[in-house]
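Example 3.2
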Amino acid sequence: MFLYSMKIVELEFDYKAVNQLFYCIFFAASGAAASMALLKQGGKLVVIFAVLAAVLAACQNAVALAVGKFMNVDPLISMMTGSIPMTGGHGNAASFAPIAVDAGSTSSYGSCNSSSYIWINFRMYSWRTIRKLYGKKT
């Protein structure tokens, strides 16, 4: 910092390359816990879960696009409020935002983060309500 303030050295940092590297490391480490033995142990239930998750994600995208079309919102922004933040959270949505920006969207960063936080709060409060209705402690 001292060298920068004295205008002796100015370092540049390419965050995009490092960002992608750490994304790859994170997801590789997350997938390292999965094994064929574990998948075989889950058997039919794993396949059913995967199919239901894919169908749910497609339905979330269809609803997001339909609501977006009804409200005259750019389809890229509509997709940023669909299954992208609902299934992957704000990290997933933020990683997809540059793709939407490259495709021509202007406000993907804000919409992805805000929709993700909306869904996080919705899930949190809906589960609290369900637990209260059934008498379980929160």
